[in-house]
Design a protein that fits this description.
Blueprint lengths: L1 H17 L4 E2 H7 L1 H9 L4 H20 L5 E4 L5 E4 L14 H13 L6 H13 L26 H10 L3 E5 L8 E13 L2 E8 L4 E6 L3 E7 L14 H8 L4 E10 L4 H6 L2 E6 L2 E9 L2 H6 L5 E5 L1 H16 L1
Antiparallel strand pairs: 1-3, 2-3, 4-5, 4-8, 5-6, 6-7, 9-11, 9-12, 10-11
Length: 325
């Protein structure tokens, strides 16, 4: 059905772009095979006319939403016609210098391991056809480092489309402290990658507040819901700042932990002091902020919290919840 509609829209667009005079509904109905077939299935009566009119109006609205400028012209005898003038539907020439082309090539290379790789490559091919400098190779290496944004979560693509289309979603989400996932009803705002993990920011309908979700903790399939948003979308969505505060990046205290030698290099990088204890253990002083307990749990038996007591208790509770699950 999706392929049939796409073909019908393409044929309608070609008819409207290819005509020099406005075409009436009657002429378009006779010119496009999909409309002729639909009329035949409906018997050709009044019901067939109503069905065609609804289909044509939907198709015309869809084309306009895609950006096609369709004019409505009324003739001297009162008949309404439609056309899409080429000069109204033609983009201006695209000119890019070498630096701009290199920036676009770099952006496209970022997505080569994600599902957007095909779209990114196709966009560059269109830019090349539209006047990208011939002496510039967008895929040419510009340094020793290859930019990559890993996208391994199955939830990424449906959430990306839901953010774009402003469609609420439903998914099962397992918090770090929970043994089982919970169903969440979310109005998605934005996706952002932070330290190798993807996060979704949006309005959680069940809690009536903004929340951030880590995609790797979404279990099962992301389902769309047709109803619109109930909460306003903020102009600026601070995904990284929110996650950073939860991950202990914004710290106002210090914690003391024991860390197994040769393990926990991210913790060592943040440590303000490191002392060797012997027997394969080190003692670290690290900044302590909201969410540090969730981060420490990820290192499992390689970390032992010494102080403060509330941090130690939070880590133990999380480990027990994981063990029960």
């Amino acid at each position: 059905m999706a392929i049939a509609k796409a073909e019908r829209l393409m044929n309608l667009a070609l008819c409207l772009l290819g005509t020099r005079r406005p075409l009436s509904k009657r002429e378009l109905r006779a010119s496009i095979e999909a409309y002729v077939e639909a009329s035949g299935r409906d018997g050709g009566g009044a019901g067939s006319d109503d069905s065609f009119n609804r289909m044509f109006e939907r198709d015309k609205d869809d084309l306009r939403e895609l950006g096609l400028v369709i004019e409505t012209v009324e003739s001297l005898d009162g008949e309404v016609g439609y056309l899409a003038r080429r000069d109204s539907n033609r983009l201006p020439p695209i000119t890019l210098d070498a630096e701009e082309a290199a920036a676009l090539g770099l952006a496209a290379k970022v997505w080569q391991q994600a599902r957007l790789a095909g779209a990114a490559s196709g966009a560059l091919q269109k830019l090349r056809a539209a006047g990208l400098p011939e002496d510039v190779d967008p895929y040419e290496a510009h340094g020793a480092l290859e930019p990559r944004i890993p996208v391994h979560e199955a939830a990424f693509e449906p959430l990306m489309l839901a953010c774009r289309d402003r469609r609420p979603v439903v998914f099962d989400y397992r918090k770090a402290t929970a043994a089982r996932p919970e169903t969440r009803h979310v109005e998605p705002w934005a996706l952002e990658c932070w330290r190798g993990h993807w996060y979704l920011a949006g309005f959680d309908r069940d809690r009536g507040a903004e929340r951030v979700f880590r995609l790797s903790r979404i279990t099962g399939r992301v389902r769309s819901r047709g109803t619109g948003f109930t909460a306003p979308v903020p102009d600026v969505v601070t995904v990284r700042e929110t996650v950073a505060s939860w991950a202990g990046e914004i710290a106002d205290r210090s914690a003391r932990i024991r860390l197994r030698a040769g393990a926990g290099y991210p913790l060592r990088a943040k440590a303000t002091a490191v002392r060797e204890l012997g027997d394969g253990w080190d003692e670290l002083d690290i900044p302590y902020g909201h969410g540090l307990d969730a981060w420490l749990v990820e290192f499992g038996p390689d970390v032992v919290v010494l102080e403060p007591d509330e941090l130690r208790s939070d880590v133990v509770d999380r480990l027990r919840a994981v063990a029960k699950g």
